[in-house]
Amino acid sequence: MYQEDDDSINETYDEKIKLMVIGETRVGKTSLIKKYTKDEFGGAYLTTVGIDFQEKIIKIDDKTVKLQIWDTAGEERFRNIAKNYFHTSNGFLLVYDISNKESFEKLHFWNEQIKINAPENTRCIVIGNKTDLNDKREVSQIEGETFSKEYKIGFYETSAKEGTNVNKVFEDLASEIIKDFKKNGNKNKRSSQVLKKNTKVQKKGCC
C-alpha cells in the first residue's frame, strides 16, 4: 500500500491537491492520468493493482499547485484499499467508458462510495472517456449530462488516446478546489512544503 509522499526537497509550492480517479476496471483511468502527467498514451496498460499515484505541478492563477493524482483499481477485490484513501481527497474524477454501458450504470455505486467515504461537499466530476470509440458508443452524451445534472456535478467527455479534454478535466477540477480553499481561509495552504526532484512547473491549459 502506498503512503503519501514526504515532500522531500527542491521547489516550493502554494497548494497541494489530492485527486482520486475512480470507476470500473478498463474505463481508461490509468490512460487519462498518464496522458495528463506524462503526455503518454501506450494504447493499453496493465490493470492497476490496488492503488498508485502520479504528480504534476501546474499554475492556477497566481498559485503554484502540486496535484497528486491517485489511480485506483476498479476490480472489486481492491475496492476496500481504494476507499481507505477517500477521506483525505480533495476531489474525485468519476470515469466511465462511453463504449461500455455497464461501466456507466455502475456510476451510481461509485458516487455512493464517495458520499459514504469522502468528506462532505468534496468536489466531483463525471467523465465519459474513450470518445475515440464513438462508432462503438453505448452511452449517449445526453445520458452522461443527465447523470451529472441528477447529482449536480460537472460533466465532460474525454479521449486519453487523442488528448481530448484531458488537461481540462484535471485543471478545471483543481481550479474549483482552489476556489474552495480561498473561501475556507486557505486552510489547505502549504507554502512551506517542497517538491520532489525533477518536477516541472507547467502552465494551465487544455488540449
Describe the 3D structure:
By secondary structure, this protein is α/β, with parallel strands linked by helices. It has a single domain, classed as Rossmann fold, CATH 3.40.50.300. 29% of the residues lie in helices and 24% in strands. The protein has six helices and seven strands; from the N terminus they run βαββαβααβαβαβ. The protein has a seven-stranded mixed beta sheet, with helices on both faces.
Name the CATH architecture: 3-Layer(aba) Sandwich
Count of helical regions: 6
CATH fold call: Rossmann fold
Question: How many distinct beta strands?
Answer: 7
**Rg from alpha-carbon coordinates:** 16 Å
What's the name of the CATH homologous superfamily? P-loop containing nucleotide triphosphate hydrolases
Coarse morphology: globular
Q: Report the average pLDDT across residues.
A: 82
Poorly predicted ranges: 6-10, 188-207
Q: What is the subunit arrangement here?
A: single chain
- In which order are the strands of the major sheet placed? 6-5-4-1-3-2-7
End-to-end Cα distance: 33 Å
| Biggest β-sheet strands, sense, barrel | 7 strands, mixed
Please identify the structural class as seen in this structure. alpha/beta
The percent of residues in helical segments reads 25-40%
